[in-house]
Specification:
The protein is 92% helix and 0% strand. It has 157 residues and is mostly helical. The chain is rod-shaped and about 90 Å long. It starts with a helix and ends with a helix.
Length: 157
């Protein structure tokens, strides 16, 4: 049962990228913004208003808070992407090893005895050929998706 729960959690993480670390970064960003607003806003505004006028003080403080929020947002997005990639890799690793499950091997042996090994070998060869063709067709479409993701990442960064 635990394996299925982990599988569903990884699938959800591939789609959303949300994890404990993403939520932690978001909470840190919110707490940092609130603390900065409480402790520094009044003091900085008074000091800037003495040096410059009130409008300039407000603009400077607004830009500073926007910079803090932007840095926290970038950290959150980078963590999300890293989580999605890690989950994809783990799902790929899990899907490749599931064929070596002893229960599946026992079922395969029973099917082989029931159908006959010669017929089963020819069916297996046909399945391998179909799988190779499907992999080749999916590989043709994949570089276009990778290029689009790289272009999107370059435009954001």
């Amino acid at each position: 049962m635990r394996g299925w729960l982990r599988y569903f959690a990884l699938n959800a993480q591939v789609r959303t990228g949300v994890s404990g670390w993403v939520l932690a970064w978001a909470l840190i960003a919110a707490a940092g913004a609130a603390a900065a607003a409480v402790f520094l806003l009044v003091a900085a505004f008074v000091w800037l208003a003495d040096v410059y006028d009130s409008l300039t003080a407000g603009v400077v403080l607004g830009c500073a808070f926007a910079l803090i929020a932007l840095i926290a947002l970038l950290a959150c997005l980078m963590t999300r992407r890293r989580n999605m990639q890690r989950a994809r890799l783990e799902l790929a690793a899990r899907s490749s090893t599931s064929w070596f499950d002893p229960k599946l091997v026992a079922v395969g042996v029973q099917i082989g005895q029931a159908i006959g090994w010669r017929r089963l070998v020819s069916l297996a060869a046909l399945a391998v050929l179909a799988g190779a063709a499907a992999k080749e067709w999916s590989a043709r479409a994949q570089p276009a998706e990778d290029d689009a993701a790289e272009d999107e990442a370059a435009s954001e960064g």
